[in-house]
C-alpha cells in the first residue's frame, strides 16, 4: 500500500549525513545599518520579533536588491550572501540572529537546493510559538548553558522551517531539485531510500519500485520535479556522501566500498565525472 510523503521521514537521513550547526551571535535591538558579510560555508537565520526594517542586497546575487519587512518574520540565508539591515534608530527592531555552518559548504545538498533567501512571516508557520517562546526566553537574560541551548533551539527552528518548505513547495517558490522531489508523495519514498542506503545497487527499476511507479512514469516524474534523471541524482548523491567520508578521514578505497563501487578506480572515475577532479586532487584543494 502506498504511503504519503507525510509518513516518510524526509529530513533525518539527509541532516544526519550533512549536518547544519547553528550559533547564536546577536540578541536584542538593531539600530542604523547592520552589515552581515558573506563567509564560505556560512548561512544566516534571523528572527524579527517586532518592528520593521528594510533588507538590501547587491544586484545580481540571487536575492532581491530590496526587501521590506514589517511584521514578525524569519529570514533564512542558506548560502553565503552579504546583506544589510536598515533600521531607523527610534524604531530599533528586536532580533535574534544565528549563523548556520553547513557541512561541506556550498556543496551541502540543502544549500544547493534552496533559494538564496527565504522570507517567511511567522504567522505562516504553525507550531513555532513554543520554540520561539523558549528561544527568546533564553536570550533575554544570562543563565547557565544559555548559548548552547539557544544554538539548539535555532536548529529546531531550522527543522521546523524545512518541514514547512516541504509541505508548501509552490508557496515557498522552491526551484526544482532535492526539496521539490522530497515534497512529492511518491518520489519522497525513493529519495529517502537512496539517501539512507547510497551503497545499494540502485537501478531505475528498483528506485521506481520504492516509489510504487512504473519505470517510465517514475523517470518522467523525477525529471519534472527534481530537474535531472534518477541516475544523475544518484551519482551526485553518492559523490556528496563520498566527500563527507573523505573529509572525515576515510580512505578512497573504503569510501568506494561503502558506496557500492566495484573498485577504487571506478569510484574515482565517477567522482571525477561529477566534480571535475579526482578524489586525491579534491582532498588537496
Task: Explain how this protein is built.
The protein has helices at residues 12-17, 109-113, 128-140, 146-167, 169-172, 178-182, 187-196, 204-211, 215-226, 230-247, 252-258, 264-275, 279-283, and strands at residues 20-30, 32-36, 42-50, 53-56, 66-69, 73-77, 83-87, 93-102, 118-121. The chain is α+β, with helices and mostly antiparallel strands and 285 residues long. It has two domains: 5-172, Jelly Rolls; 184-283, Orthogonal Bundle (Arc Repressor Mutant, subunit A), CATH 1.10.10. Strands 1-8-3-6-9 form a five-stranded antiparallel sheet. Strands 2-7-4-5 form a four-stranded antiparallel sheet, with no helix packed on it. The longest helix is centred in the middle third of the chain and has 22 residues, at 146-167.
Keywords:
13 helices, 2 domains, 285 residues, Arc Repressor Mutant, subunit A, 5-stranded antiparallel sheet, Jelly Rolls, alpha+beta, single chain
Oligomer class: single chain
Helix content: 40-55%
Shape: globular
The helix/strand class is alpha+beta
**Biggest sheet, spatial arrangement of strands:** 1-8-3-6-9
Whole-angstrom Rg = 21 Å
Question: What is the annotated CATH architecture of the largest domain?
Answer: Sandwich
| Low-pLDDT windows of residues | 1-5
The secondary-structure element order is HEEEEEEEEHEHHHHHHHHHHH
CATH class of the largest domain: Mainly Beta
Distance between the termini: 47 Å
Biggest β-sheet description = 5 strands, antiparallel
Mean pLDDT over all positions: 90
How much of the residues is beta strand, in percent? 15-25%
Amino acid at each position: 500500500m502506498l504511503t504519503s510523503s507525510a509518513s516518510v521521514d524526509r529530513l533525518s537521513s539527509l541532516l544526519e549525513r550533512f549536518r547544519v550547526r547553528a550559533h547564536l551571535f546577536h540578541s536584542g535591538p538593531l539600530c542604523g545599518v547592520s552589515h552581515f558579510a558573506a563567509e564560505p560555508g556560512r548561512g544566516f537565520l534571523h528572527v524579527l520579533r517586532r518592528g520593521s526594517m528594510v533588507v538590501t542586497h547587491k544586484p545580481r546575487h540571487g536575492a532581491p536588491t530590496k526587501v521590506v519587512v514589517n511584521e514578525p518574520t524569519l529570514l533564512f540565508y542558506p548560502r553565503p550572501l552579504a546583506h544589510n539591515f536598515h533600521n531607523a534608530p527610534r524604531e530599533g527592531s528586536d532580533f535574534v540572529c544565528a549563523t548556520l555552518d553547513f557541512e561541506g559548504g556550498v556543496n551541502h545538498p540543502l544549500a544547493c537546493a534552496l533559494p538564496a533567501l527565504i522570507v517567511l512571516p511567522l504567522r505562516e508557520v504553525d507550531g513555532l510559538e513554543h520554540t520561539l517562546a523558549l528561544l527568546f526566553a533564553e536570550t533575554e537574560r544570562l543563565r547557565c548553558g544559555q548559548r548552547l541551548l539557544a544554538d539548539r533551539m535555532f536548529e529546531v527552528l531550522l527543522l521546523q522551517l524545512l518541514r514547512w518548505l516541504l509541505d508548501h513547495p509552490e508557496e515557498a517558490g522552491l526551484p526544482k531539485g532535492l526539496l521539490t522531489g522530497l515534497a512529492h508523495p511518491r518520489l519522497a519514498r525513493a529519495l529517502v531510500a537512496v539517501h539512507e542506503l547510497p551503497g545499494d545497487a540502485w537501478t531505475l527499476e528498483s528506485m521506481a519500485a520504492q516509489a510504487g511507479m512504473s519505470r517510465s512514469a517514475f523517470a518522467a516524474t523525477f525529471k519534472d520535479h527534481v530537474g535531472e534523471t534518477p541516475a544523475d541524482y544518484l551519482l551526485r548523491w553518492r559523490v556528496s556522501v563520498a566527500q563527507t567520508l573523505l573529509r572525515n578521514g576515510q580512505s578512497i578505497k573504503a569510501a568506494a566500498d561503502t558506496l557500492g563501487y566495484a573498485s577504487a578506480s571506478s569510484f574515482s572515475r565517477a567522482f571525477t565525472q561529477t566534480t571535475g577532479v579526482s578524489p586525491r586532487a579534491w582532498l588537496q584543494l
